[in-house]
Amino acid sequence: MSGARGVVRFLADENFDQRITLGLRRNAPALDIQTAREAGLLGMPDPAVLAYAADENRVVLSHDTSTLPGHLATFLMSGRHSPGVLLVPQESALGRTISDLLLVWEASTADEWRDTWTRLPL
Fold it and tell me: Which CATH number does the domain 4-119 belong to among 3.40.50, 3.90.1200, 1.10.287, 3.30.2410?
């Protein structure tokens, strides 16, 4: 279980839309979201980002719908566990994406996302 009471914590990967991150922080100041820049992960390959997220119990937020699922599968096959990955297509509506991520944070526990990837919108 990650965080207090299994609260979902997020890691926005390097190319994740900063407007979403800002919208989440504005709408829910208590939400725990860290950017790749804040984590010192700029330029790191996806497997390293997945490892960091696992070590920190953070669900990865990414627009990388093409290669990240494969990296996650390899990561899981290596025997590691992941807090999960939420994939957001680039063309997704900004407001809908923020609403969906707030719903994930407010209405689920971290354990529900463990070792899975999910594509938004929900």
Answer: 3.40.50
